[in-house]
Amino acid sequence: MKVLVTGGTGYIGSHTVVELLNRGFEVIIIDNLSNSREEVVHRIEKITGKSPLYFNIDVCNKADLKKFFSVYKVDATIHFAAFKAVGESVEKPLLYYRNNLLSLINLLELYAEFGFDNFLFSSSCSVYGQSDAQPVSESTPLKPAESPYGNTKQIGEEILRDSILARPFRGIALRYFNPAGAHSSALIGEYPLHAPNNLGPVITQTAIGKRESFTVFGNDYNTPDGTCIRDYIHVVDIATAHVDAVNRLIHKKNKKPFELYNLGTGRGYSVMEAITAFENSTGIKLKYNFGPRRPGDVEKVWADTARANSELGWKATRSLEEIMNSAWGWEKQMTRNSNKITG
Ligand code: WQD
């Protein structure tokens, strides 16, 4: 079975490629390396002993994508390739709407042209906005997205749903909560080309000394310790959910042509609990200060995972400590070998 993974050299994409290869799928990665490195392909080979095909293709370039599909008849596609920095999306909304929506529209137009089936869309808990009640389930009404990034995920789900209604093929949108951590080999992990904004790498870069300290954005929220609550989920748990979702489509187990699943642990942790989990699991004291709230942050969000547990037969198994430990292992390896990362 041949699976196309767009954005497959990225953070979640690379971890998903590893799990797909480990389970005997043939994988083709297309990625324009706008926020990742070709080196990741070699590291995937090192971990799995298998070689995915890799092509440097921009999914926004329809002509290149069409050439690709005219040669490679894929059995399923997992579409990760997108820009994902919430803050950047506020500063550059058109860049996000163009990239995240045009790439999806290109893929779906060519899917229809070539008569392909089985499409997985990488969505996000940011589609919920600030819900009145937690945990959020897939039927929780969506609030207006807090950022253009979150809006591209809301619109992306609607584009997929409407395309499926117009031409019966099958698709699943997976709503990630807060992916964090790294593969146990410490060969792949979160490795953006630019300075990271999200909590995981900010913590590990502070711990290793790449940054003096970091700011906790707000401790005056209506939460037990005043800091925001999120559902941090190990990136390998996210990856295994994609394998289960591909299998569900390929083996025609889906109940409806378009399905939606939350990918979370079902447990919310505050920023302070995440910091404590890192300090306890590594023995390293972090340097941080409390600052003003970050625009666009929701106060709390965590997942109701019942549907993914029962229908996908999938459950997150890794703890917050394992997340922090694996993130720390990756940071140390990356810093040790940072002069060796090429491509
Ligand atoms: C988590 C918490 C911050 C940095 C976004 C997207 C989501 C996903 C992950 C792509 C918040 C606090 C952070 C720092 C801090 N994107 N924080 N100091 O914003 O919940 O989720 O990124 O997959 O779709 O919405 O993640 O890690 O940026 O923030 O206090 O230096 O950590 O305020 O409460 P977020 P995050």
Characterize the biggest β-sheet. 7 strands, parallel
- Report how far apart the termini are: 29 Å
N to C succession of SSEs: EHEHEHEHHEHEEHEEEHEEHEHH
- CATH topology label: Rossmann fold
Question: DSSP helix count?
Answer: 11
Alpha-carbon Rg, integer: 19 Å
What's the mean pLDDT score? 95
Bound molecules: UDP-4-deoxy-4-formamido-beta-L-arabinopyranose
From the helix content, strand content and strand pairing, which structural class follows?
alpha/beta
Stretches with pLDDT under 50, minimum 5 residues: none
Q: How does CATH name the architecture?
A: 3-Layer(aba) Sandwich
As a percent range, the share of strand residues is: 15-25%
The portion of residues assigned to helices is: 40-55%
Approximate shape: globular
Strand order of the largest sheet: 3-2-1-4-5-6-11
Number of domains in the coordinates? Answer: 1
Short overview:
The chain has 343 residues and is α/β, with parallel strands linked by helices. It contains 11 helices and 13 strands. The strands form 4 sheets. It has a 7-stranded parallel sheet, sandwiched between helices. It has a two-stranded parallel sheet with strand order 7-10.
